[in-house]
Amino acid sequence: MSKTNTDLSENSRKRTQTRRQQPHALVHPIPPFYDDHSTVLVLGSFPSVKSREVGFFYGHPRNRYWMVAAAVFDSAPLTTIADKKAFLRENHIAMWDTIQSCTITGSSDSSIRDVVPNDIGRILRSAPIRRIFCNGTASYNLYMKYIYPKTGREAVKMPSTSPANAAWSLPRLIDAWKILKNV
Q1: Looking at the chain, which terminus has fewer C-beta neighbours within 10 angstroms, N or C?
Q2: pTM score, whole prediction
């Protein structure tokens, strides 16, 4: 490859990375998952880039949510969206996020601004939710700021299953998330 083509390829790669790093105003593209038997609601903050691409929660292969959930409930590995939905139904788990729309850079919770919260009341009116769990500090803080004042329903802050939460090992996460099984 000539130097000119190499320079063009490098410039193209840099432009693509720069576009990915720009903040974008986004609307939550994934509908809530629940049914009239859901007793637990797990809330994230906002779907990652990969989750938005695959169209379901915790879609990034390095996010440990599905490994943790499978271990907590002694389930086989959850690899397909169909497997994950069946698992959620079987274990009466509803899933959504605290944010309906926001401005976000990539998948970075720390970049979130211009928040419009989701109306989780539609889930609370349709399902016998006993407990609400927030996956990570960002989800919990957003819940407490925007949703708790409307619902008056307490939420439990859980350690994030994100790969960014390297301080928590998989066994430690599994131990913490066992609380889901006792609802």
Answers
A1: N
A2: 0.84
